[in-house]
Amino acid sequence: MNTTEILFFFLSALAIFSAIMVLISKNPIHSVLWLVGVFFAISGHYILLNAQFLAIVNMIVYAGAIMVLFLFVVMLMNLNAETEPQKNLWMKLAGVISGGCLLMVFVSLVRQATDLNAKKAMTTTGDIGLIKNLGKLLFNEYVVPFEITSVLFLSAMIGAIVIGKKE
Amino acid sequence: MTLLVLDWLLIIEKLVLIAIIVFASLGIALYTTFAERKVAAILQDRPGPERAGPFGLFQPFADGLKLIMKEEITPNSSNKTLFILGPGLAMTAALMTCAVIPWGASVQLFGRTIDLQIADVNIGILYIFGVVSLGVYGIMIGGWASNNKFSLMAALRGASQAISYELAMGIALIALLMTTGSLSLKTIVEQQMAPGHLWNIAYQPIGFLLFFICAMAECNRTPFDLPEAENELNFGYHQEYSSMKLGFYLFSEYVNMIMSSAVMASLYFGGYDIPFFNEALLPQNIAALVGVGALLIKIVIFIFIFMWIRWTIPRFRYDQLMNLGWKSLIPIALVNMLITGAWILAKL
Asked: How many domains does chain A have?
């Protein structure tokens, strides 16, 4: 095993373990923190693929901003294990079955996709994830969708402020 | 044996470098606490700590020993795991920043060229941002896990303050990045060292001022120390903490201060560049060591300014803090960015 493989297996194990802990933790705050762990592991995978920019943006935006807001909400709602509503068994069963179906669809999709077949992940060699190449691509080829997305974000932000503002 | 195909020499080199930098940061932080008390004393016209050792130089060790020897109290109704995790996270996040800071040029040792930087990633500044945004978790988790209303309030304050000032900081940085064209701290420092190129402070004075103010807010330093406003919140987010766990929180603030000083020195004041002097005239190793010294002097100057401000300006009110962040700093940063853009276009 070389360094990349060791890191890959370590990060994958970390990601899966943290994801499972998100689901089975009784305390919602613990769930949120395990989710931060998942984001960390995923960022590590991005770095293995030489997509440093994506990795760090994933960390800043998801782990640094969105999860902090999650944490805010969960802390202020004062959720405890006692006050958590108990769902009945049939609901849980239905959830497991539908989740399993979704997983099956995903797996079959990945297996059959001609785009993915016989292609290897470009560990430490690909350079599309570097900030220079990504920036050039975004501001040349995809500049119109990119700008439209930013306007969309801006309108969403203004909308949130207008809704949140008291009369 | 092909189980582990690793470059062990590289790993050892990096581990040694990490150990040196971490311990050096902790040592400097130790004496920063002493300097803080001395500077406060000078500004308030009193002698300050002077009993332990010559000029009171052993005072930080006495303080540390006192913190370690104190009884460790964990509140009954607290969340035990998170209560311990909080200070650890605060300290880890504070120390993680040192990975991308270029502490000096490269040195030649045992036939190897060793960069005095743990990792020269091409997104160095963004990495610092990522780590800074993680620093919020230490405060939030600690404040919440204490199960104390004052702590929770302080934690929420701290988090919203950090998030608000990160924005202005980011926009101030974008203007700098537009002039440098690189996110790697090493490249930025080398650009400033190049002959005929001034330090970035000359091109981005407003940007630096904004960055400095925001860095002060991110470090929770007075006048932005609202998360630990003792007259409003008793003691803030670390109210329930005692012994070395409290020590970690207090200490991480000083480590943060050192790291942000190092970042500011690297971004705006030439990093390990010695002013008015061509390093190429000296042998490589000596030049590198002198460069490290130059960076340390810049850091010390910044830390002194931090303290000077702390003991001069009173704390903001919370609404003033938010108004300053959102209604003054962000518009100024945006205008600064536009002017920089226009300047770059005009130069082309």
From this structure: 2
Give the ipTM: 0.78
Range of the domain at A13: 3-82+89-129
List chain B pLDDT tens, one digit each, 348 residues: 345 666 777 788 888 888 888 888 888 888 888 888 888 888 888 888 888 778 878 888 888 888 888 888 888 877 788 888 888 888 888 888 888 888 877 777 777 777 778 877 778 888 888 888 888 888 888 888 887 888 888 888 888 888 888 888 888 888 888 888 888 888 888 888 877 778 888 888 888 899 998 888 888 877 887 777 767 777 777 778 888 888 888 888 888 888 889 888 888 888 787 777 777 777 777 888 888 888 889 999 999 998 888 888 888 888 888 888 888 889 999 999 999 989 888 887
Residue B114, classed as helix, strand or coil, is strand
Q: Which of A2, A68, A75 lies closest to B136 in CB terms?
A: A68
Contact residues of B toward A, CB < 8 A: 3-6, 79, 81-82, 121-123, 126-127, 129-130, 133-134, 136-137, 140-141, 144, 152, 155-156, 159, 163, 183
Rounded Cα–Cα distance for residues B205 and B339 (Å): 12
Residues in chain A, total = 167
CATH number, domain containing residue A26: 1.20.120.1200
On whether both A136 and A149 belong to a single domain, the answer is yes
Pair (A110, A161) in one structural domain: no
- Min Cα separation B31/chain A (Å): 31
Same domain, residue pair A123 and A135: no
Using alpha carbons, select from A132, A99, A80, A18 the residue that is nearest to residue B177: A132
Contact yes or no for B156 and A52 at CB 8 A: no
